[in-house]
Amino acid sequence: MPHACALLVIDMQNSLVAIAHRADETVATIAGLRQRAKAAGVPIVTIQQRGDELEPGTGGWQIVPELAPGADETVVHKTSADSFLDTNLDTTLQTLGVTEVVITGFATEICVDTTARQALSHRYDLVLVADGHTTSGRPDSGAYASPQQSIAHHNEIFRHLDFPARSIRVLPASQVNFAPTQPVSGPTGTA
Fold first, then answer.
1. Which pTM value belongs to this model?
2. What is the side-by-side strand order in the sheet with 125-134?
3. What is the DSSP string of 103-129?
4. Domain residue spans in the chain?
5. pLDDT per residue over 108-153, tens digit each?
6. 5-175 is classed in which CATH architecture?
7. Using an 8 Å Cβ cutoff, are 145 and 135 in contact?
8. Which residues lie in coiled coils (predicted)?
């Protein structure tokens, strides 16, 4: 099967982006990736969280305007950190012939991490966009790691994560290549 990727944009919703660390930069990075993916004919799948504070139809639930999906793009609605759990994401990716997911979005240590790991378990290769995911802004003290530490930590974890027969790469957006290629074989790739 030829190598084919899809860009996943996770939970970039108004209420969540409003509390995000380096929100403007992350939105701009993902918007640039969206433009490049569209130009290359790569499918874009927008994932949208529903829940107590993210009621469908409300302004806070909506995807930020810069990343709003086009009419021809797939939107997957989820109710947990796992974008595959009780959703049609896997079926959608299989129908599109996708072999690798390029992951971006919010929040690094929750939905981005969970979805990335589940993608590997569902037998997809993975690109985690190092500067294309973020987490909530918070003080540098307390029980949570700072946003910068959390993002750096997860990028480093995925650089060293080993999944048999899966390619895992952590790349800055500028190095993400949407051109079709042959499948990556061998051990985990890193950047």
1. 0.92
2. 74-78, 44-49, 5-10, 100-106, 125-134, 168-171
3. EEEE-IIIIIHHHHHHHHHTT-EEEEE
4. 5-175
5. 999 999 999 999 999 999 999 999 999 999 876 678 889 999 999 9
6. 3-Layer(aba) Sandwich (3.40)
7. no
8. none
